[in-house]
Amino acid sequence: MRREPLLNAAVFLGLLAVVLWARATDEPFTITLATRVAILALAGVGLNLALGLGGLVSLGHAVFFGIGGYAMGILASHAQSYSPLIEWPVLIEGTKSMPVIWLVAMAASGLAALGIGALSLRTSGVYFIMITLAFGQMFYYFAISWPAYGGEDGLSIYVRNGFPGLNTLDPIQFFAICYVILGLALWLFSRLSRSAFGLALGAARQNGERVMAVGIAPYRLRLVAFALSGVITGLAGALFADLNRFVSPTMFSWQTSGEIMVFVILGGVARLFGPVVGAAVFILLEHVLGGLSEFWHIYLGAVLLVVVLFARGGIIGLIAGREVRHD
Amino acid sequence: MIKGDDDMNLKTLAMAGALGIAACAAQAEVKVGMITTLSGGGAGLGIDVRDGFMLAIEQSGRSDIEVIIEDDQRKPDIAVQLADKMIQSDKVDVMTGIIWSNLAMAVVPGAVAQGKFYLSPNAGPSALAGKGCNKNYFNVAWQNDNLHEAAGAYATDETFLNAFIMAPNYPAGQDALTGFKRYFDGNIAGEVYTQLGQTDYAAEIAQIRDSVADHVFFFLPGGMGISFLKQYADSGVDKPLIGPAFSFDQGILQAVGDAALGVKNTSQWNKDIDNPANAAFVASFQEKYGRLPSLYASQGFDTANLLISAVETADVNDPDAFRAALEAANFDSTRGDFAFGNNHHPIQNIYVREVIKEGDVYTNKIVGTALTNHADAYAPECKM
Amino acid sequence: MSLILFIEQMLNGVQFGVMLFLMAAGLTLIFGVMGLINLAHGSLYMIGAFAAAWVAGMSGSFVLALIASLAAAAAAGALIELMVIRRLYDRDHLDQVLATFALILIFSEGTRWLFGSFPLFLEIPPYLSGPVTLPGGIEYPLYRLAIIGVGLLVAAGLFALIARTRIGIQIRAGEADREMIAALGVNISALYTIVFALGAALAGLAGALIGAIQSVQVGMGEPVLILAFVVIVIGGIGSIKGALVGAILVGLTDTLGRVLLPAVFAQFMAPQAASSVGSSLASMSIYILMAGVLVMRPSGLFGKA
């Protein structure tokens, strides 16, 4: 099958083409939508690492998305009000610098993923789905009732954070940042899936005992995959917060976890570009159907149902055909 | 995404058609972007605001106000996205429509920072009333604490001594209890925060029964209030209930039934406020939509009339003149007297209502005035 | 807190647990027999409540309303089993989650389209309303006692169904070895439709019973769905006994957490802060319970490893 790489290239360049066209015709909102697609796709790439490569069906990825978002919100709100984050034992100030925020977001969500993964990976199957959901709900209720950073009202950041040498308030420059990061994440995903680590992870998904027999501990493999997955989704959360200049506990809700999962499945599980296609189609549907009827969720549901029932392998599977497995 | 623009134009045309006006985008002088909740949970409130707003626009007969309506699904990130679209693509002049405080906090600061006017038909978070007030932000409903403060004042007037107070554990709930306590002179016999979205209140009702309280103040909007009222009525506890109007609006009361009868609640509006504007509003709303208007519909109606009054006297492209016209609030409010304070929040009467049954329909009647010409507690902090 | 109040709160916890069991029973039955995760179970609960409210509004009879809720939910269940669900049995959990998530969207907005955006009215019948006095002087609503009764009846009925009847034998055989019972000539697809409709009917009954003391509105199914999942995961998926124990455990944890945690924090904090912190922790308590149980026993309390 050579169609999938072609399709992938078309999708990736297509997203860029839409943005350039929108710039030429002065449609800044279309650029905003495309940026949204890139960021949600990035969150999906994170989940796809756990879900597609590792077979770990996590219904709690909103935790990492939300932690990334709040890392941005908390740091930027302290910088905005010139009040230090911590004064003792060391002085930590807020910041409006994107690279610093990204590092903090990735570190925080990675740590959370390590902790949650270490506990959750003791279970499997439906129990794993549900324990990740439970962790999501814990964070959600905590964020709603924790008054320090706005509770359910969330946090508004009045000006988008800065990136050295760029004007992030210009929609196309902010899109460029997200687009490059998405590209890097996709490159990392494709490298990982073909690396020894990725192959062992795939083998562990299909047959845990067989991997153990050759001396690899599936638990550790999965934990590393889960943590990496959390890091990427956390970074997407920080970018998403910067896109909206706003964070709220909704980012932690189980519906957010569900939507990230929908992107991955809609596009095609374990396909490199599955989340990108899924996020793009989802945003397009939301935009088009939402204009047609107040009751557009009915149509959205019908489309999802048709994809699950009749297009196994998602949209990419439908267009590029079944994946040929080499394992 | 090209599609997106098509469907927007389609919607605009459909709307102009519905109004019997041959408007097209080029002729419209004022573009209004309405972001409100039209699908999913809580859609009833957004639909009422929209219907009230559009009724006023229709009655004005003006063809120079174009309204673009979008559904935020009660999600803050969708609301922000729609606001970006309206500001960047549709190039609206005025925004309105948001129901929920958390969505307002996501949209309003950004919108007014970009020079847009925002007229709030429902949410009034304290962050936008005090230090965070803005010259382009006008609240036509209330500051969030107002109705709770009125409940506290009413409890004091009724010489209640011990209050049991209850609200969900989120910022609006915490503000509600603070607002009640600000105007209540008695003791707090119990203070309980429930879970947001909680449906079973047996444990709280047992605590109420066990406490020394002589009345209960609760703020439980939407379905939470319905559940609590039904369960409380069935529990046999007979301490009087007081609440803000949100659990007793026209849309919800029919679902509560007898359990709400006789309960006192505080509101800045009711359908029996005696003035010509209100009488005309109630009659025409009922005629057009076939249901009694709610509090939210009245707020949508007033918001549109405020806008119309400003459009009549000033050009929206001259922000200072337009702002002055809004500040004058020169329109016939369904509430009777209406004026803005220095922070662009209403100064108005807040009434005490009692739930009654008229024929088969549960509704409210005004039984007293809790606070007269009431402004909010945050106004002094606002420096504009 | 007095002893009487504490006992009353325990009773409230048990009662809340039984309410959850009504919902969880169908969910765990469907999972146990067909291995299907059904997120749309909450929609069936909503359908039951709406059918009951509609019929009660037309006829004024609560008994007719309950019958309508059973019939409507069973019919809706059978319909989606025939059209959608049966294509999902041999799929992985991922596809099941997504497909039944899509069903939630369709059912929720479809119901809103039919009945409008405002909550419906459904009330307790006069012969079950008001409180009764229990030994020890506790005043307790009769209707809540009735819910406990119905819940225990359903539990007993399900145990009997599975242990004693022909269909129960087929269900147990099907759980153990699907191919084998098909080979023995049992019409397995008819069996699955029946089991799914039965689970749906239970959800519908729960919706109608609970709808009378809560709010009958679109979206009422999702919060209780998540709680029901917590229940069956704690109990061990597929086990009716596990669902009953899990439900009561969750009901007690939630109710006592809400009551006791603010009181505990009030010992060393200001009342308002104590109430706020205590209730935050209480809202997380059942999820902490669930995570704790799963870390100790990865297949729940009564699950098969």
Sum up the structure in keywords:
heterotrimer; A: 327 residues; mainly alpha; ABC transporter involved in vitamin B12 uptake, BtuC; two-stranded antiparallel ribbon; 13 helices; B: 384 residues; alpha/beta; Rossmann fold; 2 domains; five-stranded parallel β-sheet; 12 helices; 13 strands; disordered N terminus
Explain what this protein looks like in three dimensions.
Chain A is mainly alpha-helical. Chain A has a single domain (3-320), classed as ABC transporter involved in vitamin B12 uptake, BtuC (Orthogonal Bundle), CATH 1.10.3470. Chain A has 13 helices and 2 strands. A two-stranded antiparallel ribbon of chain A has the order 1-2. Chain A is globular and about 55 Å long. The two termini of chain A are 16 Å apart. Chain B is α/β, with parallel strands linked by helices and 384 residues long. In chain B, the strands form 2 sheets. In chain B, strands 6, 7, 8, 9, 10, 11, 12 and 13 form an 8-stranded mixed sheet that branches. In chain B, strands 2-1-3-4-5 form a 5-stranded parallel sheet, with helices on both faces. The relative contact order of chain B is 0.14. Chain C has 305 residues and is an all-alpha fold. Chain C has one domain (8-124, 140-296): ABC transporter involved in vitamin B12 uptake, BtuC. Helix content of chain C is 75%, strand content 2%. Chain C has helices at 3-34, 41-59, 62-83, 93-115, 142-164, 166-176, 178-183, 188-211, 221-235, 240-266, 271-296; strands at residues 131-133, 139-141. The radius of gyration of chain C is 20 Å and the shape is globular. Chains in contact: A-B, A-C, B-C. At the B-C interface, helix 2, strand 7, helix 7, helix 8 and helix 9 of B face helix 1, helix 4, helix 10 and helix 11 of C.
Integer average pLDDT of chain C = 90
Helix content of chain C: over 70%
Main sheet of chain A: which strands, in order across? 1-2
Overall geometric form of chain A: globular
SSE-based structural type of chain A = mainly alpha
Distance between the termini of chain C: 41 Å
Strand content of chain C: under 5%
What is the strand content of chain A? under 5%
